[in-house]
Amino acid sequence: MLRSPIMFTAKSILLFSLSILFSCRSGSLNPFKAASPHQNYQQKLTKAGLDQTAMGASWISKADKSLKSALKIRIPFRETGYFAAEKVPVSSYQFSATRGQNLMVRLIKKPAAQFRIYLDIWEQTEDGRNRLLASADTTDKPLELEIKASGTYLMRIQPELLQSGQYTIEITSGPSLAFPVNSSEKPTVQSHFGDGRDANTRKHEGIDIFAPFRTPAIAVAEGTVQRVNENNLGGKVVWMRPKGKNYTLYYAHLDEQIATDGQRVARGDTLGLIGNTGNAKNTPPHLHFGIYTADGAVDPFPFIDPKVKPAPQINASLTLLNATVRSTGHATVFNSMESGSESLAALKPGTIMYVNAANSNWYSVQLPDGQIGFIQNRQVRSVASPLSKLTVNNNVQPVYDQPDSLAAIKLNLPIGETVNVLGSFGSYFLITARDGESGWICRK
Questions:
Q1: pTM value?
Q2: How far apart are CA 225 and CA 235, in angstroms?
Q3: pLDDT in tens for each of the 444 residues of the chain?
Q4: N or C end of the chain, less CB within 10 A?
């Protein structure tokens, strides 16, 4: 398995300086804090002058640039990858989330100790900026985040300098509130937010949950009952404000109201009994459940949807993590694993790339020019067996450490030297010489 190490100057000085930094750790979980653990660590690097070293400057630069090239994923998501210290790695992801969902992030590290990874989550605002929402520098416990606005989110994970190890990250989403009807009664949602009402003269401002007559309608969170009254549409209704939230819950078509004005309730307390009062008198018993904000009604279903999809299993082999591989034929690198996603690079057979992580039936890879993306796992193969052999015939052949004539020359191959060709990228071959040294030579 061929690796691709990068050498940095003054490594011994960097190791000593980092050992001092490691003696002063930041907290384990820092949501909504002015300075995140990642920011604190970066400030320590700068204060120690390590931002002037090749490795320190690369760590800072890659942290920022990775957010601009974040890979697009869909929740739920699971990935297993390897962070190699010599590559100064970082991974960033872009995903969509809906208001009312509760995001759960779990990060498992190997080794569990002495391998610190910084995790940050941002919301992309309408003006194109990123607003930091939550951070952690250890995730022994899942990080949970309630989504307060539907939109695009970013997540970055980055280990400390000189830290190598394997990680598995799992992201799932579930409801931020409990379901308002006891599941033992097998309730069903049969009418959704936005459905037409009264010959489409108005829109449904909630969801209808059908259950047997006089089934308890329960509090979905701790909070306070604001009002218990009746109206023409909802019949007997209860209004409730969850603790610490900026919205109000609406329970309608009740046969009987149990809660009283100003009552403090706990999650699971009965607020009323399901019926068909108001304009539901000609329908089967059901609970109309709505959520109202200062801007009006919002879809309540993501807040209470009890179905939590598990993260997909990883089927791609983990033996290729952090390995150099090549394409098995004509292949495509995409910006997402979803059908119809954008193509980032069309690869010829034998194109060299490096495996960063495994996801479902895909690999997250990096091309020699730095381009990252997803490729189907069946389209890559280890370079353990060479494609062919090549003999230097005319002039001494320089071997570069990158597929670029301006890159550093690792060695020069004499005339008559025979090398193994592992693959190619652009106008260069990746080869191994007799002494096991690897590098890039220009294709003639």
A1: 0.88
A2: 17
A3: 454 433 344 454 455 455 545 444 433 444 445 689 999 999 999 999 999 999 999 999 999 999 999 999 999 999 999 999 999 999 999 999 999 999 999 999 999 888 999 999 999 988 889 999 999 886 567 899 999 999 999 999 999 999 999 999 999 999 999 999 988 878 999 888 877 676 666 788 899 999 999 999 999 999 999 999 999 999 999 999 999 999 999 999 999 999 999 999 999 999 999 999 999 999 999 999 999 999 999 999 999 999 999 999 999 999 999 999 999 999 999 999 998 899 999 999 999 999 999 999 999 999 999 999 999 999 999 999 999 999 998 889 999 999 999 999 999 999 999 999 999 999 999 999 988 899 999 987
A4: C
Same domain, residue pair 75 and 39: yes
Both 64 and 162 in one domain: the answer is: yes
Q: Which of 175, 208, 235 is the last residue of a domain?
A: 175
Q: What CATH number did the domain enclosing 252 receive?
A: 2.70.70.10
On whether residue 263 sits in a domain, the answer given is: yes
190 and 161 belong to one structural domain: no
The answer for residues whose C-beta is within 8 angstroms of residue 418's C-beta and 6 or more apart is 389, 390, 391, 392, 434
> Domain of 330?
318-380
Q: Nearest CA to 300 among 176, 200, 188, 170?
A: 176
- DSSP-derived secondary structure letter, 303: H
Are 21 and 143 part of one and the same domain?
yes
Structural domain includes residue 2: no
Same domain for 371 and 434? Answer: no
How many domains does one find in the chain? 4
- Answer whether residue 352 is part of any domain: yes
Is the Cβ–Cβ distance between 142 and 104 less than 8 Å? yes
- Residue 149, number of CB atoms within 10 A of its CB: 12
Q: Are 281 and 222 in contact (CB under 8 A)?
A: no
